Amino acid sequence: MTFNRTGRTAGPATAPASPPDPVSRRRWLALAVLAVAQFMIFLDETVVNVALPSIKTSLGFSEPSLAWVINAYVLLFGGLILLGGRAADLAGRRRIFLIGTAIFGLASLLNGLATSQGMLIGARALQGIGAALATPAALALVTGLFPAGPQRTKALTMWGALSGLGFATGVLLGGVITQAASWRWVFFINIPIAVVGLVAVPRLVAESRNPGRPGFDLPGAVTITAGMSTLVYTLLEGARYGWTSAVTIGLFAVAAALLGAFALIESRAAVPLVPRGFVHRRATLVPNISQWLLTVAAFSSFFMLTLYLQQVLGYTPLQTGLGYIPMAAALVAASVAASKLVPRFGPRPLVIGGLALVGAGLVVLGHAPADGTYLASVLPGLVLIGFGGGFSFVSINTAALARVEETVAGLASGLLSSAAQLGGAVGLAVIVALATARGTGLLRSGATAVAAQAGGLRLGFLLAAGVALAASLIAAIAMPRQDTAPTPGAPSGPLKAAESA
Fold it and tell me: Which domain holds residue 263?
């Protein structure tokens, strides 16, 4: 207690407010820039789908060739992403992020300016290369900026929220941009975001790499890239060749042989691309399986729901995009809630519950009739998927990366992103193919075109629901419980460098 000059009692002395920590402010600003740059890549995963009919008309694509607007991107992204993650650990995470972002931005410009089918497909392949480099490097930078414990958990929950939001809003923005402007602007919007990342990241994030493991496993890199690319290609093209055809079976055999050769090379390499025992840890394996199964369900259901809204209910691209707003809102709300719940309870219960909600939402969509309405047949399922997706994206990212060692941060990020790409390819190849076959069968049995389409999509939604519910069950049985206590020791490399800058 103190006294003023008149001798009267004054209030208790208050300590001067501590100035904000500039290092902490810089770190969170770096996270914001990295997250926005990655939001661009996640957005691109879905934004192009809604614009495909306009692209087809503008450049004269046939149905088979139009698929390669998506396939060229997915093939290179899925085939190179694991290599991109390991290259970030060895060559420098900031360097690989900047190279990938520059390639992605340049490819987006070329896509928007495309005047031929070949130019557009080639630029989409270039976009896939950029995404395969930038995505794991950015997530590894985030992992290195924040020490293991509550701070990293909070950062990863924000990252996961933006990842899920990017997927959800891609469909919305695709419809709005395509109808209000032109399909070319679904690519042009990436350019300013890429420029911001290229300018801001070098000023906010110090370089980091793994200095303790010199050398590079070139045979392992070649076999894993070739094996992943062959597997993704086979999944994308299996329906066209026929799933039981000699070509498809042969391609699957080649992919299996290449991936088997990779495992053999890794077991004997002095400096393996994937450290021995890393993938087999439950803390690594179960979140990656959850990510894979979630994207199997999510990619296929987004694609099928767009078909249901446009080809069954007769919505325009703009109306289709606006129809996704409730899901995006639910996803944001769940992500905000998850950022508070994960530090308290760990990611495991949110992974289990989130995947179960996604499955429940897909069950609702699996009963949408040909004469359904948006409010009765679509909205309840969308809201459930939004809440479940928000919980799942956030908690799976946190479970996979919250306590990963900095030396393998790029690899861990690459594995998680690779699981997502493979999941998307499997979902589109298998679930959509089965839904299409069901619709064709109903049409041949005498159903109207709309009724046949709706019947096939119902089967697809129920298959996707089964995948999501199976993922929830696997997480409940096998996912280890994680605490969020900080790991003793000094902060990791890029943070130390930033503190001394």
Answer: 217-270
Other CB atoms within a 10 A radius of the CB of residue 99 amount to 21
Instruction: With a cut of 70, say whether residue 488 has pLDDT above it.
Output: no
Cβ atoms of 124 and 52 closer than 8 Å: no
Are both 298 and 433 inside the same structural domain? yes
Q: Are 487 and 197 in contact, with CB atoms under 8 Å apart?
A: no
Measured CA to CA, the distance from residue 292 to residue 467 in angstroms comes to 10
pTM (two decimals): 0.76
Provide CB contacts within 8 A for 200, sequence distance 6+. Answer: 33
Please report, for the domain that includes residue 308, its CATH number. 1.20.1250.20
For the stretch 119-170, pLDDT in tens is 999 999 999 999 999 988 888 888 888 877 777 777 777 776 676 666 667 7
The Cα–Cα gap between 67 and 436 comes to 15
- Dihedrals phi, psi of 12, to nearest 5 degrees: -65, 145
- The pLDDT tens digits for 193-237 are 899 999 999 988 888 776 655 566 778 878 888 888 888 788 878
What distance in Å separates the CA atoms of residue 288 and residue 435, rounded to the nearest whole number?
26
Structural domain count of the chain:
2
Q: Which residues contact 160 (CB under 8 A, 6 or more apart)?
A: 335, 338, 393, 394, 395, 396, 397, 398
Q: Tokens 């350019």 belong to which residue?
A: 191
Choice between 246 and 332, residue whose per-residue pLDDT is larger: 246
Same domain, 226 and 317: no
The answer to whether the CB of 453 falls within 8 A of the CB of 307 is yes
Same-domain pairing of 258 and 207: no
Do 256 and 192 share a domain, yes or no? no
Judge whether 335 and 165 are in contact, CB under 8 Å.
Answer: yes
d(C-alpha 66, C-alpha 48), whole Å: 12
Same domain, 281 and 261: no
Residues 6+ away with beta carbon under 8 Å from 139: 38, 159, 397, 401, 409, 413, 416, 417
Range from 99-103, 131-135, 370-374, 399-403 carrying the lowest mean pLDDT: 399-403
